[in-house]
Design brief:
About 30% of the residues lie in helices and about 25% in strands. With about 500 residues, it is an alpha/beta fold. The strands form 5 sheets. The chain has a 6-stranded mixed beta sheet, with helices on both faces. Strands 16-19-20-13-21-22 form a 6-stranded mixed beta sheet, sandwiched between helices. Helix 14 packs parallel to helix 15. The protein starts with a strand and ends in a 7-residue tail after the last helix. The protein binds adenosine-5'-triphosphate and magnesium ion.
Length: about 500
């Protein structure tokens, strides 16, 4: 706590209220952040965290309330004002220009110029290198954004804010897309930043990270401020129950169950990645009905390509996929859907939803052409809305309004819409890729229960997740993927983190 200057309030948000129409996203919230502090914002999906930070960054105007920056009342009318006042923000979804280099992205809009007024790229690269070194970010200025990992892209976003003179950095769910190793590195970077006088506000759902990295934590529930606590004198359980207003179970309850026949069969599958290199290299796997088979592995070992191949989004070079004996190799997504395979995709914004469609429209995305949703080619809006209302109720989607666009939903609520749709189609096979990424603990509990319910109803569930805890908790059997192949399968009750970790790193299954 040595870095915090309690006499210096860098940010004070007082009685902030934000309404969207009749809906109150922030209800009289207070937030004080001191210089040098790492302050976590915790709350359920849709609690209003991103909204509050978008207000601080000038993207939204509060309906009521005041903001003080360094003790001075400030009217943050747009992000330019925020930046001038030393506030930077890295969003939940990055906003980089993919074909541009790291340095070009960082200096975009404020390029250093040479005497002739043309852009001085050499100087830009040097500037970027200097800041990168100062805070231990280690980016390579000349690489293109499209060629670097998500973790690196995030560092570029951080550098972009620092380059614009940010003293206070807002990080909106920075770890949701990172691997465990990248998370460790990010925490180290945050520490470097605060020892050099920067202040950080971080939104995260991961209580472990809050315990590890944050000094203070402010909890928001349904738009209201619940508490601000000193992190070292609180527990993960306390944080969780403050956040959802009830006790949360971190353990997945499931009964012993005899698995049935093979539902999904994958034989010698070979699939290429975007660069044309084999990412899945002769993978074989059988998922039985009545079981959850979890695939554990380090990111980038062919998981994404496997899922895309199984759901018809990527072509299969060789090998065979069958569902209940029917060949579905290289079928279109529609044919695969008709073969009763449902999927919860990894990237909910690109693959799972049409963001400019309403919740109701997204709920029937795959079967709007069928009865009762349409008849003789004419949509029956009444039936669609009734169906959507029912699912919103059952899956606790907030806000409870089928007519709003899914773009306006919080990340967790977008995920609930997809799960509601996919599970309700009553599939034989459910493929779930990173199904709880970015979700709060209450929503995670819900998703896990939904997966177990599918299994109990004799469906075959394939779970692919980078969260080892999740795979170990939810699965009946665990398959480890490494370099595009399954290198070992263990019963979940015999699995331990250490030996799985070893296999995930290519260490074999013997020890
Ligand atoms: N532009 C908007 N128009 C209408 N409603 C909105 C808008 N932005 C946010 N909301 C609503 O305000 C509520 C709070 O959303 P917000 O994005 O702040 O949640 P969050 O706490 O960041 O959730 P998550 O953890 O899922 O990201 C949500 O119910 C959301 O649907
Ligand atoms: Mg958010």
């Amino acid at each position: 706590m040595k870095n915090i200057n309690f006499d210096h309030k860098v940010v004070e948000m007082k009685n902030i209220t934000k309404k969207f129409g009749n809906f109150t996203a922030n209800d009289n919230i207070n937030l004080t952040v001191h210089k040098g502090e790492i302050h976590a914002l915790l709350g359920e999906n849709g609690a209003g965290k991103s909204t509050l930070m978008n207000i601080l960054y000038g993207l939204y105007q509060p309906t009521m309330g005041e903001i003080y920056i360094n003790g001075e009342k400030t009217n943050i009318t747009d992000p330019n004002v925020a930046i001038k006042k030393g506030i930077g923000m890295v969003h939940q979804h990055f906003m980089l220009v993919e074909p541009f280099t790291v340095a070009e992205n960082i200096v975009l809009g404020m390029e250093p110029t040479s005497t002739l007024g043309t852009m001085n790229m050499k100087k830009a690269v040097k500037n970027v290198e200097d800041i990168s070194k100062q805070y231990g970010l280690h980016v390579k200025p000349n690489e293109k954004i499209q060629d670097i990992s998500v973790g690196m892209q995030q560092r570029v976003e951080i550098l972009k804010a620092l380059y614009r003179g940010a003293d206070t950095l807002i990080l909106d769910e920075p770890t949701a897309v990172l691997t465990p190793q990248e998370i460790k590195e990010l925490i180290q970077i945050m520490r470097n930043l605060t020892t050099q006088g920067k202040t950080i506000i971080i939104i995260t759902h991961k209580l472990k990270e809050i315990k590890e990295a944050a000094d203070y934590c402010t909890i928001i529930r349904r738009g209201k401020h619940v508490d601000t606590v000193e992190v070292k004198s609180t527990t993960e359980d306390e944080l969780a129950s403050k956040m959802v207003g009830r006790e949360v179970s971190f353990k997945v309850e499931k009964e012993q169950k005899q698995r049935g026949d093979v539902g999904l069969k994958i034989e010698n599958l070979v699939v290429k990645d975007n660069r044309g290199i084999d990412a899945v290299r002769g993978l074989s796997l059988e998922v039985h009905v009545g079981e959850i088979l979890g695939v554990a592995g380090v990111d980038g070992n062919g998981q994404t390509e496997l899922i895309e191949a199984l759901t018809g989004l990527r072509s299969i070079t060789s090998g065979k996929v069958t569902v209940n004996g029917n060949d579905v190799t290289n079928k279109t997504p529609k044919e695969i859907f008709q073969n009763k395979i449902a999927s919860i995709p990894e990237d909910r914004q690109k693959r799972g939803l049409v963001l400019d469609y309403t919740i109701a429209e997204n709920m029937v995305l795959e079967n709007y052409g069928e009865q009762p949703f349409s008849k003789n080619g004419i949509l029956n809006k009444l039936e669609i809305n009734k169906f959507a209302k029912d699912l919103i109720e059952k899956f606790d989607v907030r806000p409870n309004d089928e007519t709003i666009k899914t773009r306006a939903l919080s990340g967790g609520n977008q995920q609930k819409v997809i799960i509601a749709r996919e599970v309700t189609n009553d599939p034989d096979i459910l493929i779930a890729a990173q199904p709880t990424r970015g979700l709060d603990v209450g929503a995670i509990e819900f998703v896990h229960k939904s997966l177990v319910r599918q299994r109990d109803n004799d469906k075959a569930v394939l779970l692919v997740s980078l969260e080892l805890d999740e795979v170990m908790n939810v699965s009946d059997r665990i398959a480890v993927i490494y370099e595009g192949k399954i290198v070992g399968i263990v019963d979940a009750k015999d699995a331990d983190e250490k030996s799985l970790g070893l296999m995930m790193a290519g260490g074999g299954s013997q020890q």
